[in-house]
């Protein structure tokens, strides 16, 4: 088994990948908004980590993997701006296991955010990072992160208010139900 300077072998990477995949996949899903893109982003992150595992000493490999994932996602978003996407056949046979169910309105609301707003909110609420940590992961100024968080939160609150006004079920015994 080959090892690096601190004695960690390549077998340790398998353990690391197995332990970190669920958390990385959850973050990737929050970043991309799409379970299939989330799998791609998670796999690319693990590939990048695996390439460096035997050559680089990581103080916090899990934190480094999340930073790699965030930066890969930013690169992915930049590429999308330059590419013209062609509609194609989507494979429906690929299964993705989600950690928890989200309300449909929330998924729709997250889709209305800009990619950088969604990234900042995902790092804040999924990874529980502060503004400084988010800025470091996204490679931008703290003021920019605050603006993304503020605007993204405002948009989600507006979507929540819209959802609440359009989806008011009437309950038996309430005044709305008895006045009909």
From TrEMBL:
Keywords recorded for this protein, A-Z: DNA-binding, Sigma factor, Transcription, Transcription regulation
InterPro entries per record: RNA_pol_sigma-70-like, RNA_pol_sigma-70_dom, RNA_pol_sigma70_r2, RNA_pol_sigma70_r4_t2, RNA_pol_sigma_r2, RNA_pol_sigma_r3/r4-like, WH-like_DNA-bd_sf
Family to which this protein belongs: Belongs to the sigma-70 factor family. ECF subfamily.
Organism, scientific name: Nocardioides marinisabuli
Name the UniProt record assigns to this protein: RNA polymerase sigma-70 factor (Sigma-E family)
Domain called RNA polymerase sigma-70 region: residue spans: 22-82
Molecular functions (GO terms): DNA binding; sigma factor activity
Entry-linked Pfam families: Sigma70_r2, Sigma70_r4_2
């Amino acid at each position: 088994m080959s090892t690096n300077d601190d004695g960690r072998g390549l077998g340790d990477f398998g353990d690391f990948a197995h332990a970190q995949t669920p958390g990385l996949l959850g973050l990737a899903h929050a970043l991309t908004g799409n379970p299939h893109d989330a799998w791609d982003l998670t796999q690319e992150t693990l590939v990048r980590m695996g390439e460096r595992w035997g050559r680089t000493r990581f103080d916090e490999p899990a934190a480094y993997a999340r930073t790699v994932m965030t930066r890969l996602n930013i690169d992915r978003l930049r590429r999308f701006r330059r590419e013209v996407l062609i509609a194609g056949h989507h494979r429906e046979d690929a299964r993705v296991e989600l950690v928890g169910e989200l309300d449909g309105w929330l998924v729709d609301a997250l889709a209305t955010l800009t990619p950088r707003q969604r990234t900042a909110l995902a790092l804040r609420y999924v990874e529980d990072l502060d503004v400084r940590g988010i800025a470091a992961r996204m490679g931008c100024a703290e003021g920019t992160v605050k603006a993304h968080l503020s605007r993204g939160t405002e948009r989600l609150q507006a979507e929540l208010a819209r959802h609440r006004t359009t989806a008011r079920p009437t309950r038996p015994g309430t005044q709305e139900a008895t006045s009909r």
